[in-house]
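Shipment paperwork, digital attachment
Item: protein structure file
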Amino acid sequence: MKQKIHILILNCIIFGLVAITMVATKTPTKKTLTCLTKQEQFVAGTPISIFFKGNLQTPRLFLIHSFGKTILDGQIKNDTIQFTIPVSYTKKTGLVSWFLLENKEEIVKGSFSIIPNNTTRTHLESYLGPPSTLAGDNHFVMFVTIPTDDFDNPKASNTAVAIQHQFLKSIEKETVKTKNFIAWKNVQAPEKSGTVLIASQCHDALSKEFDAVIYPSIATDFNISYTRNHEFADGNQITIISTSPIKDKFGNMVSNGTLVSFLITNNQNMILKTFGTTINGIAEGQILHPEQENEYTVTAYINGISKSNSLQIKYLPITPTITYSFSNGNRTILVGPIKSFMDQLVPDGIKVNVNVYHDEKLIAQLTENSNRGMAKFQLPSEFYTEKTYSITIESLGKTIKINPFNVSN
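Attachment content:
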């Protein structure tokens, strides 16, 4: 019995040693796996392969790249494992992280970087903004340029870029270096209006020509004056209000099309407005002469920016000659001919007012426009049922009072 127990214990020891030996042979070879690729930096566009030495059965390489993520199958030859990076990944710069997997377990990891390819031709992407600004006063436009290789990868930091700009007879050139992929320069606006031309160069690459429009700065105060054919309040002629050449503080004429408002106040404190836009710095506004004696005070404004002096413009009365006649039982009143300051007929469209009274009480106000110096008024019996009326005739600031008269039924 004791001999059988000794044999059983001996068998257990032998089986245990065999099991230990089997476990040792199945231990992962992680410690014996070696990355043969020591290069940590590759040039964009060149073939990239990662080699390992080891005895993995189903190796896979998991890549994390700015272009995306992917898993590569390895090519095993003897005890060497090769992974070839896809061409699309090799063309884009940045950090590439890799993880070697065996049966979904991470065996080893590492990384490498891809840098721009300086052996290819250089390309320039350039931008200018804003496309226009005002003259002087520290206004500027920003010119930005991005040099890239043939695979559209931004060049490395501190790449030299020449930026030059031209205005009138002056050409300035400055070399700036890229930082965070871009090279940029603030081009200060000159004090004169015009166009600034800007361009850049990096190695053999040239940008196209960019232009920044420099507009005049804000307008300064200005003067106004007026011209007219005569000074009479004839309700027909035009008074032209003109500004002096409007300039900014640097002497530039303001931009064509600048709106100027002419504010007019008359003797009755009524406010009128007319407008004009600048051409070569000068704006004009037109005022129709009043139909009776008046005085206008005119001030011009560029809203919120500048203003002019104030003008006083007087309009003298015409003291027209007004005749009239009755017909149709005094129910038709023909006013005219109305004569102006040279005994000429007044222009067509002059207002003629007839106020109708009964027993000194105003009962109607009639208005007609002159035609060839004449105006006709009717007092129809269905509306004017009284037998006696009196009227006043008003035109061009003159009033004629007519004594009471009888009308027929």
